User: Fold these one by one.
Assistant:
Number 1:
Amino acid sequence: MAPIDNQNKPALRLVCLSDLHDAQQTVSVPDGDVLIVAGDICLEGRLAEVKRFDDWLGTLPHRCKLVIAGNHDWPFEIVGKGAAINLLKNAIYLEDAGIEINGVNFWGSPWQPEFCDWAFNLPRGPRLAEIWDGIPSNTDVLITHTPPYGILDEVFGEHVGCEALAVAVQRVRPKFHVFGHIHECHGVLKQGETTYVNASLHDERFCLRHQPIVLDLQDP
Ligand SMILES: [Zn+2]
């Protein structure tokens, strides 16, 4: 029997998904070390949706589950958001906050450029730049709901991602930047030192069309 090749074993396997919109029951999720959910748990923004999501998370084997909110996740934005956070018993909720897992630094934030007055909206420009200034420069895996401007962010031929976030990503240079929000652009793109992942599972017609994306961090 051939010896097991530990050299090729990933140090940390990340399983990324976003934009479940309360349709998680039919999603099959590959196993891994860290499950990342980059926002839009809800469709209508109800606490009952958060509860259903958490129950589903409880059936998954990943030893660590990181969740951020998105523009549909009203229960996490309104006053009394504690109720939503308390419902997440099977995950760690990150809102402009980070966590270290096996020497790998993760940071999560729900904010996006203003569009139709959704949850966690802020005007483009200085207010968003101020939020992104808070991303620590030693971040290895950045999780946001919005894409940065110019990367996996096109709608009808126009880039709609966040300009200030693109600047922040150039400063931080994370190994991975995981996001969703723009359903049109599910995919992976490596540019410079950063691999960008739009992990939206829904497409632009709100059909659940895509699979979670698996990333291996070989050298944390
Ligand atoms: Zn969405």
Number 2:
Amino acid sequence: MNYLKVSEFINSTDEMPFLLGAFFGRYQFSNDNKFIYTLSTYKASKKLSADENDKFYLASKDEYLKRLNLQSELPWHKNENKNIKNAEFIFILENDLNLTPSKFYSKLYIKILSSDFISNKAEMEAKKKFTRAFFELRGSIDTSRPLLAKDYFYNNVSELKRISLFFDNIGISINVLNINFRDLQEQFISGENKRNTQLRVNLYWYLSQLGLINPYKARIVKKIYNIDYNDSNNGVYTFECQIPEFSNNSFADRVNFYASRILNQDLTQRDIDNLRKELNFDDNVNQDFKRDMNIINVVRFQTKDECAACKNIYDIKDRSFALRKHPQRWYTEIHHFVSVGKEKQLDVIENLTKLCPTCHRALGKGKTNPDYQKELISNIIDANPNNFEFACLIFESNNKEEIIQKVYENLK
Ligand SMILES: [Zn+2]
């Protein structure tokens, strides 16, 4: 059989949000490294009677495959390979580039970050396809609590962090996904629970915002949670249910979520109150499927007013000025450490850094001599391990000199 080549998949100008979401959710390599595949699977639930399962479970498979293909636009296949376990349906790429898993992940991540649907607010349906593929293909309906749960696999810290794309770029509120990022990271670093953990999404939120494509899962929801569904014309089962309200603590949760990724420290109630004021944040923020916090502002207000490029040489007071509204604070600018392309800003926390206005200017393409620019880049790397880690992923290298060179060449 002829499969899509990974080179075509990665270089295609087609957006393919569903397939990107599927591979981002789970990818595996065949033993001989010749194929890379993503998969979907689901089992019969014990909460449905044997009669119901006879009637719906097996019968759901063809219909599900049809809907999978409708979302994906490229065909999935029934898995007939016994070496591939726990896969009902698979989508296979031919590894014509001889990629290793980490190189594949890196190319996939860059493709996702630079896709139009990620940065374009109007591309709501594509964002939904991407999210559905990530969560539903291997997710299962929890029959005791209203959650959709899926196994979360990761091979390294970068992959562990990939879930933040849904908050930073897709615009899902962290309140719908109960995840303690710091705990996860600590487990990862300590080596316990390295391979997989569970992600749990609020089911009511999921149903009201995304619906389901799997007829059997829709049936389980109807039976267990007594929520009826309609079959929409784009092949998605839509549910009439209320978007849940989240508690007032959610703002603090959200801020802590972001802050734990940049600062790795707890915030006091006072920090949170200040931040709420700074961000002009309304408690009654809706839990809709849209970006609810500007991560650039979080970095601006949450990190110390110092310049990552020159803090070891100058005091910020000598490089900037106090803000009139906040006399304790110094004016700084947020810089994207890695620039890719002309318009694509890689807006993820890991790629942002705080600079004084002078260093920020100095890092414009051709603004000053190359050696000085490289020195500034090197200083940022030393100050912000997150930036270095992110650049390593983007440029597929762990070598500091090489990363400095690449970041320099990509200055805008
Ligand atoms: Zn500076």
Number 3:
Amino acid sequence: MKEIGGYFELSNVGVLPYYRESVELNLGRSCLKYIIRFKNIKKLYIPYYICDVVTKAVQEERCEIEFYHINNNLLPSFNKKLADGEWLYIVNYFGQVDNETIRLFKDKYKSIIVDNAQAFFTEPEKNVDTIYTCRKFFGVPDGAYLITDQIEDSVLPRDKSANRISHILGRLENTASEYFQLYQENEEALQNVPLRMISLLTKTLLGNLDYKQIKERREKNFSYLHKNLDPINCLKVKEVPGPYMYPLLLKNGGEDLKKTLIKENIYVPTLWPNILKLCKVDSFEWKLTKNLACIPCDQRYDFKEMDIIIKTIKKYNGGLLR
Ligand SMILES: Cc1ncc(COP(=O)(O)O)c(C=O)c1O
């Protein structure tokens, strides 16, 4: 029997997803599983430069994989013909792949999936299956949006996140390092989470965010970093809507720069260690994995923190110029 009255839960009255016309799922990898399963994809071309959870998701759906390389502009070096049931998976790295380019790929290949995990604020291109995941942009334990024309009638079970949120609540009132292990355990636990609808908890948290402010703050920080770091950046980077992080590729010493930043409590992730096993030492993907510093520019920070980062990088970089 339905419970009525009593103490309050977290309010979820009137919460709406950022992407209104989406299938709301629990994880980015679930979005991919959903498309593979319901569009009956037999083979997927995916980039070498990708997180291994994506590869694993494809394997779990028993879909064949062929890897391709990306070029210096972070675009697919791909020229094959797609047979029936074959699809091309394009990752929008750091939001640097604009929709005009996506349209060209769509026109040429028809069967494409765009991964906007690093481009939450980039609107989907029309008629293109597009994946968004929320953990990389906001303090939520999971959550993802899939834009697709493939709407399934069968009801998927809804995920639950209450026992995966301690690190997010903990970091709010304490330090990141105290909760880092719990964060890692949460990421590990997600490996065994099946395709589900978004949890009510994550949906509620997402429904209470100020997206306009978040997007603007990210853009201002990114722009500030860009003005200061472009002269030493070997990647040609442009300003994009509500960016994920600022990708800084030095000609030399990127790996040491990352260590220096981390020593100064500026946390920069390595995307993605598994690639060192997959790619040759002289490949672009190897170089990115070793040397690309992904600089935080998110809504928690303003120019004060950006100045600390820039100063640390310039001090490290010394006279090293491109
Ligand atoms: C580029 C990219 N796409 C997709 C995913 C999968 O997202 P999720 O962890 O929400 O399944 C990741 C995860 O790290 C990613 O980096």
